[in-house]
Amino acid sequence: MSDAEGQGQKQGQGMDRQPDRVEQLLSALRDENEALRDHAAASLGQMGLEALPGLIGMLADEDAVIREAATSAIVRIGSAAVEPLLEAIQDDEWSVREQAASALGKLKDPRGVEPLIRALKDRDGAVRSAAVWALERIGDPRAVPGLVEALTDGTLREDAARVLKKIGDVRAVEALIEGLLGNNWMVRRHAAEALGKIGDRRGIEPLIEALKDEDWLVRRNAAESLARLGDRRAVEPLVPLLEDENEMVQETVEGALASLGWKPQATN
Fold first, then answer.
1. The model's pTM
2. pLDDT in tens, 6-31
3. What is the Cα–Cα distance from 26 to 132, expressed in whole angstroms?
4. 15-138 is classed in which CATH architecture?
5. What is the C-alpha to C-alpha distance for residues 115 and 24, in angstroms, rounded to an integer?
6. Which terminal residue of the chain has fewer beta carbons within 10 Å of its beta carbon, N or C?
7. φ, ψ for residue 8 (rounded to 5)?
8. 231 by DSSP, 3-state: which?
9. What DSSP state is assigned to residue 266?
10. How far apart are CA 18 and CA 43, in angstroms?
11. How far lies 13's CA from each of 5, 25, 37, 46, 87, in Å?
């Protein structure tokens, strides 16, 4: 046998063994040993597309640890995994859709934005939550209308408000104002901060009203946002908060008033 023939035979044997190697590594993802699972995920990620069908199949496993290990391996494959994940996010099984959304967020590929926006209306709350998290990771302004709509979803509204704050898009102003005046204290906190970051003057009056909020962090965020907006109409409503029951509110208000040019009156 020539050297070339021998080399070809070895390569053929190696290719025959490759599927067996994939199966071994997929089995290792189910091991109780975390270090072994991590090693298997890294190895499967290096194997690329050949490992993908088996990994996506594991996204339906009843064990959350195994599902997350498979997702970790898929993310390691990189952009080549995006198209299969776009199919997986439409799967009949909720856990597959959830993990596909999570993986798309970790990959931060813009191709995932539109499917993730659609996933905000998924029938399963875990999938919707994963979609919000993924859109936060990607940070694409195309998600703003969908996230604004998600403010009406009791499962998502707090996370949606946080992501809208992070993206800082003017299209969210009206919805954030509504959230600022609503009943959910976490949404009010995020909305008060977001309106200052966005910098739209429609937020001034609602932020002034929010200075009376029962939640100290809403009051603090509103004061900080009013300082950012730089409108002196905020001075008079801010002054009483110099004696707020919360010291952090007091300190923020002092800085806000100073930035607006207010000086305390001298006492005789």
1. 0.82
2. 444 444 444 445 668 888 988 888 88
3. 29
4. Alpha Horseshoe (1.25)
5. 33
6. C
7. -65, -40
8. coil
9. P
10. 12
11. 12, 18, 27, 20, 33
Both tokens assigned to 113 = 């934005």
- The Cα angle at residue 59 between residues 43 and 93, in degrees rounded to 5: 165
- Token pair belonging to 199: 């910098």
Tokens (6 digits) for 239:
């002054």
Enumerate helices (H) and strands (E) in the chain, giving the number of each.
16, 0
Pinpoint the residues of the chain covered by CATH 1.25.10.10.
15-138, 140-263
Dump pLDDT digits (tens) for 169-184.
999 999 999 999 999 9
Q: Note the maximum CA span of the chain.
A: 109
Reported as a single tens digit per residue, the pLDDT across 74-115 is 999 999 999 999 999 999 999 999 999 999 999 999 999 999
Q: Would you say the C-alpha torsion 126, 132, 134, 137 has a positive or negative sign?
A: negative
User: Which H/E stretch holds residue 218?
Assistant: helix 216-229
Helix axes 185-198 and 216-229, enclosed angle (nearest 10): 10
Rounded Cα distance between 4 and 176, Å, is 70
- The CATH superfamily holding the domain 140-263 is Leucine-rich Repeat Variant (1.25.10.10)
| Residues 6+ positions from 191 with CB-CB distance below 8 Å | 161, 165, 176, 177, 179, 180
SS3 labels along 64-124? HHHHHHHHHHHHHHCHHHHHHHHHHCCCCCHHHHHHHHHHHHHHCCHHHHHHHHHHCCCCC
